[in-house]
Design brief:
about 170 residues; mainly beta; about 10% helix
């Protein structure tokens, strides 16, 4: 009897691990990618027939996904978050009628960034950002970046850098 209970427990744990990226409520943002000109693409898939609403600062658009299909939506370039230590209105809210898996792609000449979005329910309030200095083909060094997106009004964000960067002093 102990073996059966243990097997059921493992199946439950594996289900939670593999389903954490599926949801019906997502908030995402696209940080600047090199020249800011490239394509900002959202890709969604689902095991169900799904209605999806994508809301940006410019308004909302509705889409349909057929079970097992992939929806690809190219967003306008102005949706990219640009600026240092700035607040922008470039968040994207995606709501669906059934669970979806959501991917993002920020594609431009010579560089492409991608992400797997986590649903609202999987978000937390403490994060570690791993970064590294990069080098262009010319040998010049460029810094790292990150974008934080608030899902609620009056959100307070505290950034504690481990090394000094710009006007931010390491703690």
């Amino acid at each position: 009897m102990r073996k059966i209970g243990f097997i059921i427990f493992l199946i439950f744990i594996n289900f939670k691990i593999f389903s954490i990226n599926q949801g019906t409520n997502f908030w995402v943002s696209f940080p600047r990618n090199f020249d800011g000109i490239g394509d900002k693409i959202l890709m969604m898939t689902s095991d169900f027939d799904v209605s999806v609403t994508i809301t940006t600062s410019a308004g909302s658009n509705n889409y349909q996904i057929t079970a097992g299909g992939i929806l690809r939506v190219t967003l306008p370039s102005y949706i990219e978050a640009i600026g240092d230590d700035s607040i922008t209105n470039t968040g994207i809210h995606i709501v669906s009628s059934a669970p979806i898996t959501l991917y993002g792609l920020n594609k431009t000449t010579e560089t492409t960034d991608g992400f797997l979005a986590l649903p609202y329910e999987a978000l937390g309030d403490k994060y570690v950002i791993l970064t590294a200095q990069g080098r262009l083909g010319s040998g010049s060094i460029y810094g790292s970046q990150f974008t934080a997106l608030a899902t609620e009004d009056n959100t307070i964000l505290t950034v504690i850098p481990s090394v000094s960067t710009g006007t931010r002093i390491a703690w």
